[in-house]
Amino acid sequence: MTLNYCLEKSKTCLLIVDVQEKLFPVMERTCEVMHAIQKIARAFSIMNLPIIVSEQYPEKLGHTILGLKNLLGDTPLVLTKTTFSCMADPLFADALKPYEQVVIVGIEAHICVLQTAKDLLKNGIQVVVLNDAITSRSIYDFSTAIAELRDAGSRISSVETIIFELLENSKAPEFKQIKELVTS
Predict the structure, then answer these.
(1) pTM assigned to the model
(2) Which of 5, 21, 46, 178 is most buried, with most CB under 10 Å away?
(3) Cα torsion for 3, 125, 161, 105, to the nearest 10°?
């Protein structure tokens, strides 16, 4: 399958999947992944693009971790779920319906990220998964998820690639803030 599309600001949202208090600390590469998730979330905020956050069964797994929650503030839509795929929950399906393109980051790559991406693709939504901003408890599960995501039709990319693709032009009004973000 050839993935020859570029993201368009007017069609795109960021979906941050299950970066929660009791889940995140047991993941692989937490420092690098958290930095990447914060960078893409900040870039979406700078460009005034929509962000949706999922929390898997927060009564047991806690809420979005403070390092991310504080960065996001009150701007994103935060929805809770018990389903592994965000799209299997009617509130998420409705919230994601307006978007033709969804950028996914979060955990776990081989469970909630993978199932959400597959369901988005089934619904005709283009999916970009940022490999530097997803993780699992096991590097084997992570690498298997990347292969399955690509095989299912997801585009696999990285945080900086997508930031500059959405920015499009160094003359964009947000360029200075984005440049500072990616060089910090």
Answers:
(1) 0.96
(2) 178
(3) -130
